[in-house]
């Protein structure tokens, strides 16, 4: 907070400042939060002059007020809802995958988690407006497959090839690499020099399980603390930068042999939305909601995964 100086207010003379310092009132916040009646005794000014100084300091240092409508419009400008490629899925998710949220999609091997991620990324390529980062922990990334999905969803092949630069891929193999790269993302956004990071709306982690499961296997003594750090890093990217984080997770059986997401009790509080995906037959899939921060989601929805990605 700013230090009291004579230039802040005509009534703050050198003698008044000396009396303020003697009373251990050195900053603007010290003066504003002090009882005016006590200040009258300490710095030997009239009650009226004390209030005049307070009003002058508040006018100089208070934040310019914003009404609720302007804040709401600002939020709407930052908000993005990512198209899944399926009208049924979009309706199921109240529009699609929201920016500013951590969305978990969990399922067994071959259930369609990675193909769902590919389809979401391909939509960004077709639209050509926003960018995405794909963190690959299992060497599952397939650029040709993403290009195929994008080409099957547009007649403008040239635009697809031009927009492939909107997707960046990085292999991540342990938790510390994840922390380092998320710090890098925040630094690039803060610099405001790279258009890619200015347009960044989606961070895919496929999958989070290999990174976090070792935290509870004895390899790391500070496993719970590292999990909390992951939650804090996710919160910064989602709430401050309105990025959508989509994480894939495996499934395990609990003591009653019911299927649930991996990574245990601590993890379940991190995603805003937890979605379960399962494969019913060739090309036919089902998605259900395990956890949601939004009301009105249907219990489950059926959709297809074809050569064109996620469809109805």
From TrEMBL:
Residues 1-22 form the signal peptide. Keywords: ATP-binding, DNA damage, DNA recombination, DNA repair, DNA-binding, Nucleotide-binding, Nucleus, Signal. SUPFAM superfamilies: P-loop containing nucleoside triphosphate hydrolases. It is found in: Nucleus. One of its GO terms (cellular component) is Rad51B-Rad51C-Rad51D-XRCC2 complex. Residues 78-252 form the RecA family profile domain. Gene3D superfamilies: P-loop containing nucleotide triphosphate hydrolases (3.40.50.300). The keyword Transport does not apply. InterPro entries: HRR_RAD51_Paralog, P-loop_NTPase, Rad51_C, Rad51D_C, RAD51D_N, RecA_ATP-bd. GO terms for molecular function: ATP binding; ATP-dependent DNA damage sensor activity; four-way junction DNA binding; single-stranded DNA binding. GO terms for biological process: DNA strand invasion; double-strand break repair via homologous recombination; reciprocal meiotic recombination; telomere maintenance. Its main location: nucleus. The keyword DNA damage applies. It comes from the Eukaryota. Belongs to the RecA family. RAD51 subfamily. PANTHER family: DNA REPAIR PROTEIN RAD51 HOMOLOG 4 (PTHR46457). This is DNA repair protein RAD51-like protein.
């Amino acid at each position: 907070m700013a230090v009291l100086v004579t230039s802040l207010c005509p009534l703050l003379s050198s003698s008044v400042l000396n009396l303020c310092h003697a009373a251990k009132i050195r900053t603007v916040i010290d003066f504003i939060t002090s009882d005016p009646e006590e200040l009258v005794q300490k710095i030997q000014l009239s009650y009226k002059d004390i209030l005049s100084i307070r009003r002058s300091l508040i006018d100089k240092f208070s934040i310019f007020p914003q009404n609720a409508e302007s804040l709401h419009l600002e939020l709407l400008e930052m908000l993005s809802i990512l198209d899944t490629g399926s009208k049924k899925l979009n309706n199921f998710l109240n529009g699609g995958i929201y920016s500013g949220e951590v969305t978990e999609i969990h399922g067994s091997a071959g259930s369609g988690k990675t193909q769902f991620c590919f389809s979401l990324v391909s939509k960004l390529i077709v639209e050509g407006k926003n960018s995405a980062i794909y963190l690959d922990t299992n060497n599952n990334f397939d650029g040709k497959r993403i290009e195929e999905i994008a080409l099957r969803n547009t007649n403008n092949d040239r635009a697809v090839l031009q927009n492939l630069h909107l997707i960046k891929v990085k292999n991540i193999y342990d938790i510390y690499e994840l922390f380092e790269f998320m710090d890098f993302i925040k630094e690039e956004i803060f610099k405001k020099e790279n258009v890619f990071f200015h347009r960044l709306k989606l961070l895919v982690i496929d999958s989070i399980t290999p990174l976090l499961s070792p935290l509870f296997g004895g390899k790391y003594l500070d496993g719970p603390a590292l999990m909390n750090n992951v939650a804090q890093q996710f919160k910064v990217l989602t709430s401050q930068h309105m990025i959508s984080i989509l994480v894939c997770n495996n499934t395990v059986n609990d003591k009653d042999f019911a299927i649930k997401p991996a990574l245990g009790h601590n993890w379940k509080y991190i995603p805003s939305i937890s979605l379960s995906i399962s494969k019913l037959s060739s090309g036919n899939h089902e998605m259900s909601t395990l956890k949601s921060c939004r009301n009105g989601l249907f219990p489950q929805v059926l959709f297809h995964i074809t050569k064109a990605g996620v469809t109805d």
